[in-house]
Amino acid sequence: MPASLPLPLPFSPSRSPRVGVWLIGARGSVATTVVAGCAAVAAGLHPPTGLVTESPAFADSGLPALSSLVFGGHDTTDCPLPKRAEQLAAGGVLPAGLPAGVDAELTAADREIRPGGPLPGDPRNEEQLIAAFTADLRDFVRRCGLARAVVVNVASTEPAANGPALPPSSLYAAAALRAGCPYVNFTPSTGLHHPALAPLVESSGLPYAGRDGKTGQTLLRSALGPMFAQRALTVRAWSGTNLLGGGDGAALADPAAAEAKNAGKERVLADTLGATPEGQVHIDDVPVLGDWKTAWDHVAFDGFLGTRMILQTIWQGCDSALAAPLVLDLARLTARAHEAALSGPLTELAFFFKDPVGEAPSALADQHTELRRLARRLEVGGPGARGKRNAHAEGNPPDTRRTSTTGSGEEAK
């Protein structure tokens, strides 16, 4: 069993600038895997399998080193990260012995987790919640001597917003922008997409990306959909079933949350095929599966002379192990985009999402081409490094306060 790694060293200007990764849902399975995995790869305990940003295409992009990342976040639960990591190792999500080997990093990150909300009976209104979350973020950046921090939402899916009240994901998103932090929505939850946040998004001048990480079934669809279109094969129906457990399975047992999740899956097919085929995706909560999931796809298509044919696929994987490297990729790319003074939707990050922001291609190969273009754009001294930096990049976070109406909600873990 590897020895425990040392606690992070105090910030020193002579060392590489440290970059914060603030996770919403910071004690969940994905977040725990992100922290443990980053520590393991940075220490050379495991190879960077699944980390796109560790491939040669990004070698000159000036991305923050994995060893420079500092983790914190918000959550509404109180299970310490070391204990959560032990649970994940017992379930086969993390390698046996890894929690002990990175206990120092897990403990350090756990110290930086602050209470989320709103909790049942929380008396604070929207403005008070946003102000509290903003203060937590600013304190994190200040105390840890960070060059910048990126906020990433990895909490469980919430139902689509209905009405003027801001759901929890939008409260956290608003706090991120107020604190001058780029924002990434790895979930299908509303986040920055709430109409009430549009002025804040526009005035912040910050880069942002989302939404809903593309880890399994939709990843496969974004590769197979273009294949049918390019071979002039007519897809008649495309149906799918997902079996999953854990917190995500419990959250998606809510039909409203499942509907939000499925919207991105269906949009990929419509965009890549040119039309929406018959069929639906069904999501079943199977608690005994824990963090593991199985996705079946049944594709009925017509070949030459109308010959009826079928393609069936089975995708079995560990959700947290699929998601964690993408979260690290997105945090590093978004932090570098912020450093390079990019602002607005990072459409080149569509490669990572089911429902990407901005105008972006839907086919996986085309998305990868755009991602590589961003890598070149971010190269130190390249075109992405030119231009006027926003206020936060110069050391003055924008104070884009807004007055909110009273609202409440519960963050699903």
Can you describe what's shown?
By secondary structure, the chain is of the alpha/beta class. The chain has helices at residues 29-42, 81-90, 98-101, 103-111, 126-143, 168-178, 198-204, 217-230, 246-252, 255-273, 319-339, 364-377, and strands at residues 18-24, 69-75, 113-115, 146-153, 183-185, 207-210, 234-244, 281-285, 292-302, 308-318, 344-345. A seven-stranded parallel sheet has the order 3-2-1-4-5-6-11, sandwiched between helices. It has a four-stranded mixed sheet with strand order 8-7-9-10. The two termini are 31 Å apart.
Which runs of at least 5 residues are low in confidence (pLDDT < 50)? 1-14, 384-413
Percent in helix: 25-40%
End-to-end CA span: 31 Å
Report the sheet-strand fraction. Answer: 15-25%
- Give the helices and strands as they follow along the chain: EHEHHHEHEHEHEHEHHEEEHEH
Largest sheet: 7 strands, parallel
The oligomeric state is single chain
Query: Average pLDDT value?
Result: 87
Q: Tell me the structural class.
A: alpha/beta
